[in-house]
Amino acid sequence: MDFRLEVAIPSDARELASIAISTTQSHGHTSLSLGQRHEAAIKIFETDILTQKEEYIVARNSQSNDAIAYMRLILNSKTWCEHEDILPDWPHQQPVIIQRREIRANIRTLRKKIMSGTGHFYLRNIAVSPQWRGRGVGSALVARAKSLARASVHTLPIYLDSDADVCDFYIKQGFVEVESIFMTINESPSDTKSFHAMVWTRSGSSM
């Protein structure tokens, strides 16, 4: 295998931020420069890794040692993560920030509805550098999440909310779609995004 997995440390934040920026699209019109977005993302990663709010697993190129992907996983979650993945409150960015808060709030409500009262792992996201896609990196990260779940008491389920374009990937990994929601982006009826609640259990059944 030409990559390896390891637990992320705070000094990985800059590389993880670069992967995040390269694999995500900004919702809404933003006047932030790429550098400002990158620095904001670094602060989020550093804080989360230092405070151990989430488990970060990073995939590294075995030859160059460069970070090529990461996974964010909340272990044995019985509470609800209230912090948001948003940029700092730049004065000119309020509409974008408010919209992102609303999106995350709707996704959090969906998770509560499906998993309330049930201990579970929350796979917040997997990001793979574009040039490494299709080479088994994402599958290896999901396998690590399953391994952690199997090692837990009673083999806790794994929950995630997925964009439509990667649902098939997670279905191939054994996840079952439970429910979906649709939200309008940028206040345009023609710009609608769907989020799909998906669950993995040892038995392969939905919740």
UniProtKB/TrEMBL annotation:
Q: What is this protein called in UniProt? A: N-acetyltransferase domain-containing protein
What Gene3D superfamilies does this protein's entry cite? 3.40.630.30
Domain N-acetyltransferase, residue spans: 57-205
Q: Where is the signal peptide?
A: none
GO MF terms listed in the record are: acyltransferase activity, transferring groups other than amino-acyl groups
Quote any Pfam family the record assigns: Acetyltransf_7
